[in-house]
Amino acid sequence: MTQDTAKLKVQRGGPAEAPVFEDFEVPYREGMSVLDALIWVRANVDSSLAIRYSCTNANTCKECMVKVEGKTVYACTERLGTTPVTVGPLTNKRLLRDLVTDIVPPKEKLSLLLGQDQD
Ligand code: FES
């Protein structure tokens, strides 16, 4: 028996680099989320893939926001199928690396609290 796979094209790189897209194939399970697949990639293929999440289930922490097929979604609630999807970082936030962007509201930044300039 062959196992279905989910295919992801994931944007990689930091703010000073031209973005590149890397293809990953993940064992597919019915009902799996984009976050499930990204966590599997980190655990099994490339531990350097930068992702951010906290609660893993449904809009509680809001740290997993990414773009899937150009649409802003929570990676933990966006369901995967067996058709390939493109995953990228939020485009309206400062890119830190791969899928991680700076989502801390400016008023909550430690540098502001310490009286230091923002970058
Ligand atoms: S991981 Fe917390 S909302 Fe998605």
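^ FE2/S2 (inorganic) cluster complex. The longest strand covers residues 5-12. Strands lie at 5-12, 20-27, 65-68, 71-74, 85-88, 94-97, 100-102.
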